Amino acid sequence: MSINKKINNISPQHWSSIRGLNAIVDALYSDGHPIRIVGGAVRDTLADTIVHDIDLATPLLPDSVIQKLNDAGIKTIPTGLQHGTITAISDSNSFEITTLRKDKESDGRHAIVEFCDDWLEDAKRRDFTINALYADPVTGEIFDYFGGIEDLRYQRIRFIGNAHDRIEEDHLRILRYFRFLARFDTAKIDHDSLTACTALSKRQMTLARERICDELIKICSVSNPYYAIQTAYENNIFKPFLPEIEKHNINTLECLMRRESEYDIAPSALRRLAVLLPNDSKILDKIASRLKFSNAMRKSLVSRAYSSKVTIDDMRKLAFLFNADVATDIALIHGNTHIREMLDQLQNWVIPKFRIKGGDLIERGLPAGPIISETLLIIRDRWMNEAFPDQKGLNIIIDDVITDKLSS
Question: Is the pTM of this model over 0.85?
C-alpha cells in the first residue's frame, strides 16, 4: 500500500464505474454546493487497494439532501441524522452522505456536532491525515488539508493536529491507530501519535466493549498485523482490557503467521486472537464475555483451546465436533509435527451426519431415561474412533453398545 508519484487528482472515470454513484452526484452536485467523496474511498483508491465503501460529504443540510435525493427517485434512510448522516440506496448500492460538521463537544465516546459549510472544519474533526482526503467526483480534484497524500506515500499513520486532543475526542482512536498501522506493509511510527496512545491507553475502558471487540477483530484480520500488535503490546495498549496477553503470545502469533503462509491458509481473526490469549477454555470464555462477543464468536473462540497433543487422527473428529475451520486452526496453533498431513485429512472430506436419535435406541429395546443420552454419547464416540464407518458399520456399533447396556 504505497504511492510512488505525486498525485493531485483521480480520474473521474474511475468513479463512474461504481453503480449508483453518478445518480447521487447528479442529484446533489452544483457549483455552489459540490459533493465530495471522502475518507477511505479516496485513501484506498490512491493506494491502489480495494475500495469497500463510498462515503460522501456535502455542505447541504440533511433535510435538503433527503429532499433532492427523493426528488431524483433515490431511496434514503436516516441512519444518523443527529450527526448529519443519511444512507442513500442507488442502483442496489448504499452510500453514506454526511453534512459538513464540526465538533461542539465530545466526552471520548460521543460527540455533539454542529453543521457547517467549511470543508477545512470538517477535515479537522477526522482522525488521521490519510482519512482526511476528499475528491471531487466530477473534476477528480483531490483536497488534502493535512499532508495525507505524503503520509500515505511514506506509509505513515499520523493524527491530525494534536494527537492527544484527537484521542480525547474519541478514545477508540487508539485502537484505530494500530488497525491502520497493521494495514501497511512497512509502517512508520509517528512518535507523537504513539506517545499519545500510550499515555491515554486507560481511556479505552470508557468504551463500549463491543467497539473494542470490533477493532480487535479488524486488527487481527489484516494480512500481516504482527508489527502493529507487537508495538501495541510493548506500549501496554491492550493491557487495560486484555491483561492476559504475554510476551510468549506475541511470539506464538509470529509462528502462526509463518504457518499460514507455508500452508497457504487465509488469515483468520479468531485464529490469531486465540494464539494471543491463554490456551484455556474457561479463561477464553471469560474474555469473550468481558468483550461482549456474540454467542457464536464466543463459542468459536473457546473451541480453539486444546490442552491435549493434537494428532492426525484427531482432525476429522474435531471437524465433526466443531467444524473444519476449527479443526484447521487447532492444527495450525497446537500442532507440533505432521501439520500438512493433518490438513490433508480435511481436504475434500464431507463431514458425516450422526443420524441416530434417542427414539431409535428405545425402538431397539433400551428403556427411556438418562441411559439414552449416555448411550448416544458412547455410540458417537466409538463411531468417531472407528473413523466414521457407514450406516452398516454404525448399526453394528449400535447393536454392540445396546447389548452391553442391556446385559449390565
Answer: yes
